[in-house]
Amino acid sequence: MRRMATGRAGAPTHGAANQRSSGRLPVRPTSAGTALLSFPISSAVALPPTCDARIAASIKVADSELEKGIREIDLASKFALSRSRFGHLFKAQTGLTFRQYVRTARLARAKLLLRDMRLRVEEVAWRCGYAHTSNLDREFEREFGLAPSEFRRSSSG
Predict the structure, then answer these.
(1) DSSP-assigned states of every residue in 38-87
(2) From CA 37, how far away is CA 34, in angstroms rounded?
(3) Does residue 5 belong to any structural domain of this protein?
(4) How many domains is the chain partitioned into structurally?
(5) Residue 35, SS3?
(6) End-to-end Cα, the chain, rounded Å
(7) Over the stretch 121-147, which tens digit does the pLDDT of each residue have?
(8) Strand, helix or coil at 19?
(9) Residue 31 confidence (pLDDT)
(10) Which CATH number goes with the domain that contains 146?
(11) Are 12 and 4 a contacting pair, CB within 8 Å?
(12) pTM of the model
């Protein structure tokens, strides 16, 4: 039987609790001093010139299917990779995990769609792949410090 390493007070030293982050995405400045994550999202990820074609294609697929709730395992199998290998390649090529990329892409799309006053916030949430407006509200506020409706008001006038 394998023993699990423990930290202070006998708590396990690995697992979900130790893998949590602040929710912020890594933003690296470029040589021009601008942030790497900008809009549109597909051009925000600076892919190296020798980027794996499967990763470049997976980004296009992910961008086109955001509202459907694309899963990493589905993309990996589409490009004949294990989920683990796909994750390693994706992170090496983009600097983001697949989950971070999808979150960033959804929020970028939301920010863009919120500028269109004809769309209700519920419609924006749906088009960005959020099942409920509250999910968009929470993620948007965590990333930008404003609720989607507040962002809309501030960007309209």
Answers:
(1) -SSHHHHS---TT--HHHHHHHHHHHHTGGGT--HHHHHHHTT--HHHHH
(2) 9
(3) no
(4) 1
(5) strand
(6) 65
(7) 999 999 999 999 999 999 999 999 999
(8) helix
(9) 40
(10) 1.10.10.60
(11) yes
(12) 0.69
